[in-house]
Design goal:
By secondary structure, the chain is mainly beta. The strands form seven sheets. It has a 22-stranded antiparallel β-barrel. A hairpin with a 6-residue loop joins strand 31 (about 530-550) and strand 32. It is globular. The N and C termini lie far apart (about 50 Å).
Length: about 700
C-alpha cells in the first residue's frame, strides 16, 4: 500500500506540472510583486508581519475565508490541512495531539500554541489544558503555523512547531453577524460577532456557544474488561460509547484606541466527558470542567522616535482543571487486587485531582531600522507561572488522619493541603532576553540570525540560537537554509508528582533539546500556481520518559530518550480559473528512537496526503471537498497487536451566500464514506488497555445559518 500511495502522489505532481506548463510560459514576464502578491503574510517567523514566501521559516497561514470555505467548526479541522502536521488523539477526553514531523507524546508539550502571540501552556502537563474541549473558529482571523523550532523567539515548548491563533480585532469585523448551527450527536451551536466604533474607540466582541453529546463510536474493550476477565467481575462499561459530551462558551473581546489595545477572552468548558476514561476504563458519568481567562494590554508605537518600532505588553492567563463529580478511575464493582489496590471497590476507584494556575507575563520589544541593510529586533521579558492551588478527593491511598492505607470500599476523603496530595503546589519564574538581526547583505540574499537566553527558577538557564539564509534564487524561486535549536521545559506532572500510585516526578529533570536543519524551496510560477518543497532533519535529545524504578512498581520521570527524524513536505496551490482551485500536499517522515539501537517511531504516520478542491458552482454557491489519507503508522516494538490500518477521510461542504451577502448557509458532511478510522492507543505490557484503538467519528452532518446586519 505504501508504494501505491507514493506512486499516486508522484503521478499527481507530474500531472500538475504538465497542466501548469502553459500557465508558466504565459507568466514568465510578470512583475515580481505580481508573482508573489501581498496576501500571504505571517508574523510569527520573526515577530514582524512579512511575506510568507520570504519568511525565514517553513510556515503556513490559513485565513478566515479559507476556514469558512472548508466548513471547519473547530481548530483541529483547520490544522489537518497543514502538511507535516497530524492531529492524533489521547484516550483522556480525545484531547488533540499535534504531531509535527513524527514528534509525538501523550500530552503534547512539544508544541507551543499562542493566542495573539501569547502562550496558553499549562504548568501541569505543559499542554493547552487537560480539559481542552476544542477551540471554535468564528473568532479567528488567521492561523499561523511554523513547522520546526521557534525557541529563539518564543522560548520554551516552541519545539516541534508553533501555532499562533490570531483573533479578530474590532476593525476586522466589518459587519455584525448572528449564526446558529445544528448537527449529528445532538450538536447545537450559536454565535455572534459585533463591532462598534465611537470617535477613536473601536470595540469588537465575539461570543460562541457549543453543546454536544459527542460522537457515539463504540469502545469494544477497555482496561476494566481485562480486569473483569482475570478477576471474574463484570464491572466494565465496554462495549460502550466514548464519552465526549461538551458544553462550551467562548468569548473574545477587543478594545483599541490609537497605540493601545486591550484584549480579553474566556474559554469555559462544562459537562466535559473524558473520552475513553482516566485510566482507559470507560465511565460515562465522569464530568470535568475548566475556566480559562486571558487578558492582555499592548502599547505599540512605530513613530515615537525615528527608526524605532516599540511595543510593550502585559498579560494574564488563569486556567483550571475541575471536576463536576467524583471521578471514577475504575468503575463501580472493580476488583483491583491484581494491580495492587487490595480488593473490590463497590463505588469504583475514585481519584479526583484538581488544579488552578495563574500566569503573569511582561514583555518589551524594539525593532531598529536605522541601518541600511540590518533590521534589529530586541526583546526582554519576565514570566511568573503559579500553580497556586491543588485539590484531591479519593478513596484509596493513605488516610492523613490515621497514617494508614484506606481499605477498599472506604469513604472518599479530602487529601488537599496534606503530604498525600497527588502533586505539590509551586511556581516557576522565567526571565529572558533575545536579539535578532535580519541582514539584507545583497538584493537577493537575506540572513536572519537570532539567539535567546532563558533563565528558569527551577532548572537553570538555556541558550537557543537560530540561523536562516533566504536566497531569492530567481524571480519565482526562493531557497531557504534553516538551522535552529529549541527546548521543552519539564512539566510539573514530571517534576512535582509525589503520590501518584504509579508515576512519580523528578525535580532534577533537564529540559528536552532539539536541533533542526531544513532546506526549503518556494517556487511560484504565477499568482495562480505555486509549489513548495521542504527537506528536514532533526535530533531530539534528553526526552523525558517515565521509566521503571528499581525494587518498586513505580516509574519515575527521567531524561532517557533520544530520537532522530528526517523527511520532506511538498505542497501545491493551483487556481485553475476564477471558479476552481486545487490544493495538494504530501508529507513523508522517517523518525526513529535511539534508546537501544534503532526503532522506528511508533503511533505517527510516515505518510500523509491531503487534497482539497474549491469550486464556485454557481453565483453564491461554493463546493469544497477534502480528501485526507493517513498511512503507515507503526506499533511499538513490543506491541503484539495487528498493524494500524491506514484510513482515508472524505469531507464535503456546500456553502451558499445571498447575492447581497447579508445571509448564508453551509452544509458539511464529514467522513462521507463512513470510514472506520482509528487513532492508535498506547501499549502497556502484557496487553493494551484498548486493543481496538480509538475510533474516530463516522459519517456526520452539520448545518449552519448566519445573517449579517
Amino acid at each position: 500500500m505504501k508504494n501505491r500511495a507514493t506512486i499516486a502522489g508522484l503521478s499527481f505532481f507530474a500531472l500538475t506540472l504538465s497542466a501548469g506548463a502553459e500557465v508558466v510560459q504565459e507568466s514568465l514576464e510578470q512583475d515580481f510583486l505580481e508573482v508573489y502578491g501581498d496576501t500571504d503574510m505571517i508574523s510569527i517567523a520573526t515577530g514582524n508581519l512579512q511575506s510568507i514566501a520570504k519568511a525565514p521559516a517553513v510556515a503556513s497561514v490559513i485565513y478566515a475565508k479559507d476556514i469558512e470555505a472548508m466548513g471547519a467548526t473547530d481548530l483541529d479541522q483547520v490544522l489537518e490541512s497543514i502538511p507535516g502536521l497530524h492531529v492524533n488523539r489521547h484516550a483522556l477526553g480525545y484531547n488533540s495531539i499535534y504531531v509535527f514531523r513524527g514528534i509525538e507524546s501523550s500530552f503534547n508539550p512539544q508544541v507551543l500554541v499562542l493566542i495573539n502571540g501569547i502562550p496558553i501552556s499549562n504548568l501541569y502537563h505543559g499542554d493547552r489544558s487537560l480539559i481542552w474541549g476544542g477551540m471554535p473558529v468564528k473568532a479567528i482571523n488567521r492561523v499561523e503555523v511554523i513547522r520546526g523550532p521557534g525557541s529563539a523567539l518564543y522560548g520554551a515548548d516552541a519545539f516541534a512547531g508553533v501555532i499562533n491563533i490570531v483573533t479578530l480585532s474590532a476593525q476586522d469585523i466589518e459587519q455584525n453577524q448572528l449564526g446558529a448551527g445544528v448537527g449529528s450527536y445532538s450538536t447545537k451551536d450559536a454565535w455572534g460577532r459585533f463591532s462598534h466604533s465611537w470617535q477613536q474607540w473601536h470595540l469588537g466582541l465575539v461570543v460562541e456557544y457549543h453543546n454536544t453529546q459527542g460522537q457515539d463510536e463504540v469502545i469494544e474493550s477497555d482496561l476494566q474488561s481485562i480486569l473483569d476477565f482475570l478477576s471474574g467481575t463484570q464491572a466494565s462499561h465496554a462495549p460502550g460509547s466514548v464519552s465526549l459530551a461538551r458544553k462550551n462558551l467562548d468569548i473574545r473581546f477587543d478594545l483599541s484606541k490609537g497605540n493601545w489595545q486591550f484584549r480579553a477572552g474566556l474559554q469555559q468548558r462544562k459537562n466535559w466527558g473524558n473520552g475513553a476514561g482516566v485510566a482507559e476504563a470507560l465511565d460515562p458519568q465522569n464530568r470535568w470542567s475548566s475556566d480559562r481567562y486571558n487578558m492582555d494590554l499592548t502599547y505599540h508605537n512605530s513613530q515615537l522616535t525615528p527608526f524605532w518600532d516599540l511595543q510593550a505588553q502585559l498579560s494574564y492567563f488563569d486556567t483550571s482543571i475541575e471536576s463536576e463529580n467524583y471521578m471514577r478511575v475504575f468503575p463501580q464493582g472493580s476488583d483491583l487486587t491484581l494491580i495492587g489496590f487490595g480488593g473490590v471497590f463497590p463505588d469504583g476507584l475514585i481519584g479526583t485531582p484538581e488544579s488552578f494556575e495563574r500566569h503573569y507575563r511582561a514583555m518589551f520589544t524594539a525593532n531598529y531600522s536605522g541601518f541600511e541593510v540590518h533590521q534589529i529586533r530586541l526583546g526582554v521579558g519576565y514570566v511568573l507561572s503559579d500553580l497556586y492551588k491543588v485539590q484531591e478527593h479519593k478513596n484509596f491511598g493513605i488516610d492523613p488522619d490515621t497514617g494508614l492505607f484506606l481499605p477498599p470500599g472506604a469513604e472518599v476523603i479530602d487529601v488537599s493541603d496534606t503530604p498525600y496530595v497527588y502533586m505539590t503546589e509551586g511556581d516557576r519564574k522565567n526571565s529572558y532576553i533575545f536579539i535578532q538581526d535580519v541582514w539584507s547583505f545583497t538584493n537577493d540574499w537575506e540572513l536572519t540570525g537570532g539567539i535567546r537566553y532563558d533563565h528558569y527558577s527551577n532548572f537553570g538557564h538555556t541558550v537557543n540560537p537560530r540561523l536562516a539564509l533566504v536566497w531569492s534564487s530567481t524571480r519565482q524561486l526562493t531557497t531557504k537554509f534553516l538551522y535552529g535549536k529549541a527546548f521543552r521545559a519539564p512539566s510539573f506532572a514530571e517534576t512535582n508528582a509525589i503520590n501518584n500510585p504509579i508515576l512519580l516526578g523528578n525535580p532534577e529533570l533537564d529540559p528536552e533539546k532539539l536541533t533542526s536543519f531544513e532546506l526549503a524551496f518556494d517556487y511560484r510560477f504565477s499568482e495562480q500556481l505555486s509549489f513548495n518543497l521542504n527537506l528536514f532533519h532533526y535530533d531530539w535529545r534528553d526526552i523525558i520518559k517515565f521509566t521503571a524504578d528499581v525494587d518498586s512498581n513505580t516509574k519515575s520521570a527521567k531524561n532517557v530518550g533520544s530520537q532522530d527524524g528526517r523527511g520532506l513536505e511538498f505542497e501545491s496551490h493551483w487556481q485553475l480559473n476564477s471558479d476552481f482551485q486545487l490544493e495538494f500536499n504530501y508529507a513523508w517522515q522517517d523518525s526513529y528512537e535511539k534508546d537501544d539501537g534503532r526503532a522506528d517511531a511508533s503511533q505517527v504516520p510516515q505518510q500523509q496526503y491531503y487534497l482539497a478542491g474549491h469550486w464556485q458552482l454557481l453565483p453564491g454557491v461554493m463546493v469544497n471537498t477534502q480528501l485526507h489519507w493517513v498511512m503507515d503508522r507503526l506499533r511499538e516494538p513490543s506491541d503484539s497487536r495487528p498493524e494500524i490500518d491506514d484510513y482515508t477521510l472524505l469531507n464535503l461542504t456546500l456553502s451558499y451566500v445571498s447575492e447581497n451577502g447579508d445571509w448564508g448557509a453551509d452544509l458539511r458532511i464529514a467522513n462521507v464514506a463512513d470510514t472506520d478510522a482509528r487513532e492508535p492507543s498506547e501499549w502497556a505490557s502484557p496487553a493494551a488497555a484498548l486493543p481496538n484503538d480509538l475510533p474516530l467519528a463516522g459519517r456526520n452532518v452539520y448545518v449552519q445559518f448566519h445573517r449579517q446586519f
